[in-house]
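Chain A, query sequence.
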Amino acid sequence: MRDIIFATLIAALVPVSFRRPLVGLLTFSWLAYMRTQDLCWGFARLQRWSFLIAIVTFAGFFSRPIERLWAPVWRNYAMIALAIWVALSVTVNPLLTYGQWASVIEFTKVVYIGLFTTAVITRKEHLRMMVWVIALSFGFYGVKIGLAGVLSGGNITVKQGPGGMLEDNNNFGLALVMAMPLLIQITQAERNPTLKRGFLAIVPLTAIAVMATHSRGAFLSLAAAISVLVWRSKNRLTGFAIAAGLSVLAFLLVPQSYKDRISTIKTYEQDGSSMGRIAAWKTAINMTKANPFFGVGFENFQNSYYKYSAGGTASGKKVAHNAYFQIMAESGLPAYFLYMFLIVGTLWSLWRVRRRAEELYASSWIRDYAVMFEATMVAFIVGSTFLNRAQFDLFYHFVAIVIAFEAIAQREFDGLGERDEAELLHGGELRVVRPRGFRNTSSALPRGV
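Chain A, predicted structure.
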């Protein structure tokens, strides 16, 4: 029955996705992050629904006059250059292994979804819908796993995520952390009391789900994201006091097994997993020294490990355990610099937009969204230090979403009249007061979106 309901829903969304590419993008994101098909038990579980929605959405997009394929900004061109360089790293390396080109094609798809996002999301209503889709997709698992954790007294361990890029528990934990700033922002902006209380419940349940993954990288990412949110809050002293109180409460309530797991961060020299990571990082450096331009080839770290080995055990799957070392070792220093440009450029864009919003408005959704995205990016930066996630879908999607957000915010800045602008710049105390949420926004989509 579940399969029939799900398949019927997708069938209904297909023509809508063709007519309105924004709906197609939102549907694709929902399928990618919630992995709804994995919740089915029969025929629906095995179908490539995301591929179907993507084909229909692109067909609809290209069937009408196109203003642009993507936003013409440097970060988009950096993503394109990175995809090209990754493909070159496979082409020029003599060691070609099974599935390498399939991985390159998948990476290219990830990049183009990001580019497509910057072409489709052009209004703050679009941005809001995308944030809601991503937040609720991960919030679903936060509630599901969080409630199971509460009912079991904390005796729950998530060893595997829902599937796809989230199958590994560490990746799943990182994705949940990246969604938490979105859930917190929705909670703060929501005016409906019932929805507000609902989101207030989702946030702590999602935190419990993160703990259930027993991922040390996710723990550090969560701490980093919360630190950003508190530091950017209007009242830092109160924020740090609340964060400290919640930390003490969490320490008292979490099971001993989780405390033991996290405590190994301090004694990493005695932990085989941690030492294996350090050995992998040294091996990645050796690979880069020997192949600085194109690396050993995308997805070739495993097959090249023992040639450049710097220690570690002789068994098990070998990965870089670090997104930065991974992209550098597999695709060379040019790919690494492009990757870092995406990170630094995104953060710089968010800082610039936030500062401008604080100059112009006493309260603004732009400022709140900038902080939200900053916390999400910092969570990824910290988490990817311990994970092999250079091709993480969610990262490239957020880079693109921030590009769209910056363009929307800039149009709102430019919309201020010259008189208001002069008063704002020279009056000192006078600032335009804007609501935190999206007031007077229509739920209807414009024709052709």
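The longest strand covers residues 361-363. The chain is about 70% helix and 0% strand.
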